[in-house]
Amino acid sequence: MDSDAATLSPISSYSDALAAITQSKSVNEKIGLVHHEIRTHYPFIDRIAVAVYEEERDLLKTFVYSSDTPSPLQFYQVALSSSDSLSDIAAGGQARVVNDLSIFENNGKTHSERIGKGGYGAGYTVPFYNDGAFAGFIFLNSYLKNVFTEAVCHGLSPFVYLVGLLVLKETDLIKILFGSVSSALDISHHRDPETGAHLERMSRYARIIANELAPIYQLDDEYVEYIYRLAPLHDVGKIAVPDRILLKPGRLDEAEYREMQTHARKGREIMDRMLANFRLQGIKHAAILRNVIEFHHETIDGRGYPNGLSGDAIPLESRIIAVADIFDALTSERPYKHAWSNDEAFAELDRISGTKVDPRCVAALKSNLELVEDIQRTFNDDPFG
Predict the structure, then answer these.
(1) Whole-angstrom Cα distance, residue 25 to residue 240?
(2) Rg (CA), the chain
(3) Is pTM beyond 0.70 here?
(4) What angle do the packed helices 316-330 and 221-230 form, to 10 degrees?
(5) What tens digit of pLDDT does each residue of 263-287 get?
(6) What's the rounded Cα separation, in Å, for the pair 201 and 375?
(7) DSSP 152-197
(8) pLDDT at residue 319 tops 60
(9) Of 4, 334, 50, whose CA–CA distance to 192 is shortest?
């Protein structure tokens, strides 16, 4: 009787190490918490990384990362189809264990070479899906070889599943917000002439710029991916602009232009209400989203709108979006203008660099002309293209 009583304990508090992932943290921070918990059970798990998949361009892109050492694959993207082994994993849905990564040393793949140079001995690759559609990979690595036994993989399964859910939750949130905004634009204005291919292009230009500036501003993959995903929401305030202005087939007069300018502040107000309705005010990237919407028409010389911010007082994400948006506007056909060539558009950006737009953002886009042209070919405005 006494021994049985000794096994019982009164109700008491319990601290769950993973409880903090329900708080407002970045995905990187949440994955770091999961990694810490994994290492209490499997201390040889030295790296967790997630790559997300962009189906439109068949791209795998580094997204979040947890390790005690710098990432060997930061700001990296590669076509999924360029790797037969990863393509097979994505198609088949089965995880892959490689207990000796040295077998990939001479396969000619950049990602394999960088992982090898990072000193990793073994790897566990798990695909994850969103409603049956391939969404990306979760990579677990150890500096040791021969550690991913069947028992270890079985024990890791709940943690890997949690990592996938955390990533999907974040990426689905952006899709929901973008879908809501797009639907509202379609309903209120039938079709904003600057949606569609424009948004596809400018969001990818923004990612190019952010990637290039990453070493200067110590940006991480998560920030760069959110720039890309949030960029299409920059003009949400156009919902509040009347059709007679938004759809006018020509240049706006002074009064119309002033009314069009209100879309930046109104967009911030609309997004604040949307975030409140979705109960998402505290999400980690809400500040980036608000800055993208409200300040993408501020200018370096302080003569922009709505607040007349200048120089570095303008958030970096807003400066990035401004250059991406202007470049695509210049190189796109409009009812009142022909599309400019890339050379003409870059010349114009050079002309206003330092006064209207950030010179570093301009230089970042100009230095990646090959990527720019690839985006233009992929997302052109020709309905028959």
Answers:
(1) 32
(2) 24
(3) yes
(4) 50
(5) 999 999 988 888 887 776 666 678 8
(6) 6
(7) HHHHHHHHHHHHHHHHHHHHHHHHHHHHHHHHHHHHHHS--TTSTH
(8) yes
(9) 334
pLDDT value, residue 1:
45
Other CB atoms within 10 Å distance of the CB of residue 96: 16
Position 190 pLDDT exceeds 60: no
List, for residues 30-84, the tens digit of each pLDDT value.
999 999 999 999 999 999 999 999 998 899 999 999 999 988 888 899 999 998 9
- Contact 355/300 with Cβ under 8 angstroms? yes
φ/ψ of 50, rounded to 5, equals -125, 130
Task: Retrieve residue 15's tokens.
Answer: 């601290």
**Dihedral sign (CA 256, 271, 208, 379):** negative
Can 117 be counted among the known catalytic residues? no
Contacts of 282 (CB under 8 A, 6+ apart): 24
Whose tokens are 């079709």? That residue is: 191
In angstroms, the CA 46 to CA 71 distance is 11
Contacts of range 75-78, beta carbons closer than 8 Å, 24 or more positions apart: 75/211, 75/214, 75/221, 75/224, 76/110, 76/111, 76/114, 78/110, 78/111
The reply to whether omega before 306 is within 30° of 0 (cis) is yes
Q: What confidence score (pLDDT) does residue 250 get?
A: 78
User: Which listed residue (238, 266, 356, 366) is catalytic?
Assistant: 238
Among 56, 348, 66, 352, residue whose Cα is nearest residue 196: 56
Distance of CA 8 to the CA centre of its chain: 49
| Alpha helices (runs of H) in the chain, residue ranges in sequence order | 2-7, 27-41, 84-92, 110-117, 150-189, 197-217, 221-230, 243-246, 254-261, 263-277, 286-294, 316-330, 342-352, 359-366, 369-378
Question: Mapping DSSP to helix (H, G, I), strand (E, B) and coil, where does residue 142 land?
Answer: strand
